[in-house]
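Something for you to look into today, if you have time. I want to see for myself how the chain folds. Leave the record below and I will have a look.
***
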Amino acid sequence: MSREPRNEQNAQPLSYWLWLTLIILGWSALMFGGGWLARMAFAPIQTAVTSPRPVFDEVWNRVEQSFIGTVPSDTVREYGAIRGSLETLDDRFTLFSEPEARAVDRDHMRGSFGGIGVNLVRNDAGQIVLTPRPDSAAEKAGVQAGDILISIDGVPLPNPAALDDVARVRGDVGTTVKIEIMRGTETLAFTITRATIEVPSVEWRAITTTVQGKDNVIGYIRISSFTERTGKEIQDALKALNSINANTQGYLIDLRDNGGGLLSAAIDVASEFVSDGVIAYEKKRTEPEIVFSVKDSRTKIADGKPVVVLINKNTASASEIVAGALQDHERAKLVGQKSYGKGSVQLVYDLSDGSAVRVTTAKWFTPDRRTLDSVGLTPDVIVDTSADASKDAQLDEAIKLLDGVMNK
């Protein structure tokens, strides 16, 4: 009896599948173990990436768990952290501005903005008191001087109110804003369409004096801030004074309580009274020195005529550049009080959410390379403010000084 030959492939199915099963189980164990080890090895790296401020987060986790009051939003916390970290620079002019405050500052530098035309003052009770400007949108809507602002677009004002709280009355020209006011015991609401509000930085008038029977005409020019409009406004003021009375013999520039503004505007103003040369120097930490010279666009109306500049303890920054340049070029005498002493340059960087950071980047120096920062300018004639509020001793002394020069 013949027997079919034995098939070796059919004889080994058990050992084949056993080995295959062991290989699969071993590979799975290796992958699981490797993944676990990798996760353990890289966990510190992942934590470092996702939590760049572990102590900050730890603090606020504790606050959120335990604080008895209301915990501020993430945005408020972030803004607070930014302010606190900037304070470590120990520079009082490197500052952070929230979106509303930045919008107000930007409008101020432009010299115009969209608004309803009211002056805002906070009283002793922390309330915002309104005074509508003549022929403004607010006045036409019925707002009266002394009205207390209590809400904007349905959002009540806190007490006391801050600048950021009332900045919302501003906005794009043609848009509307709803305000509620308290007038005595009555609450009134107004919906007002915003219009263009222009804020001039230059005021002028002619002052006529008589000395020994001779009339002197002084062109008085007050500059309240240095904005994008100031350069043109100073030229307009000089032209107007010259057209009204071509016999204007001297100029009195009032820079008291002028906290500064744009450097370009300061160069424009100084150029109207200095015929040539340097107005200011700017020095940064590593870059070459920048020289700001008299501009070619000057009108030359004031050439050859004596000048006196009024300054006080609040005259700062761009105002000090103008006063310092005129003093160094012996173009003007300074009268009043020692100036504030802000000779540093700030660049404003607008941020993604509408906020901004103002960073000190350089120092200013006068044409004679005098430092302004923390030093200020010393007047040629020092005059303190008068105890009598009805008198302006500094202005009187400046006029007297000009009269003396013009009558030589």
